[in-house]
Amino acid sequence: MTSSPTQGIKTVLHPVSDLAKAKEVYAALLGVQPQADAPYYVGFEAAGQHIGLVPGGGPQGMTSPVTYWHVPDIEAKLAEVTAAGATVKEPAHDVGGGRLVATFTDLDGNVLGLLQDR
Questions:
Q1: How confident is the model at residue 4 (pLDDT cuts 50, 70, 90)?
Q2: I want to staple 3 with a disulfide (CB 3.0 to 4.6 A). Which of 30, 47, 76, 90 is the partner?
Q3: For 94-109, what is the mean pLDDT?
Q4: Is 23 exposed, middle or buried (0-12, 13-18, 19+ CB in 10 A)?
Q5: CATH number at residue 81
Q6: Cα–Cα separations (whole angstroms), residue 25 to 17, 48, 64, 105
Q7: How far apart are CA 51 and CA 59, in angstroms?
């Protein structure tokens, strides 16, 4: 395995059906107000973690939480996990500000994410 090491899980996105109500629950749970608050996404920073709320699962159709491993080279890590048997679900793409995300499924169909900041 030749790609750069994974830096760890720092981001977890949760699909929600009612963004306003979910925002209240997560604010109470985390003890902080959201740092990003838009009709399409609400994001919290708490204890070194980013917790995101995605209404209706977003364009990627999330049906369960997705954990995102932060990596220095998303394309290299995607190549490494697919060589090991994973299947790309959502290729690497820019979601704004130079941040790249991708998702893949493991052999059991679990959806996992990769995130690279520029």
A1: low
A2: 76
A3: 93
A4: middle
A5: 3.10.180.10
A6: 13, 19, 17, 29
A7: 18
Share of the chain above pLDDT 90, in %: 80
User: Where residue 80 falls among pLDDT bands split at 50, 70, 90?
Assistant: very high
pTM: 0.83
Number of Cα atoms under 13 Å in the Cβ half of residue 78: 19
Q: Under 8 Å CB-to-CB from 48, ≥6 apart: which residues?
A: 10
Q: How many domains does the chain have?
A: 1
Is residue 2 situated within a structural domain? no
Tell me if 111 is assigned to some domain.
yes
Judged by DSSP in three states, 3 sits in coil
Is residue 35, in this structure, part of any structural domain at all? yes
Task: Give the per-residue pLDDT at 3.
Answer: 56
Per-residue tokens: 90: 């959502």
Asked if residue 107 is part of any domain, the answer here is yes
9 CB-contact burial (10 Å; exposed 0-12 / middle 13-18 / buried 19+): middle
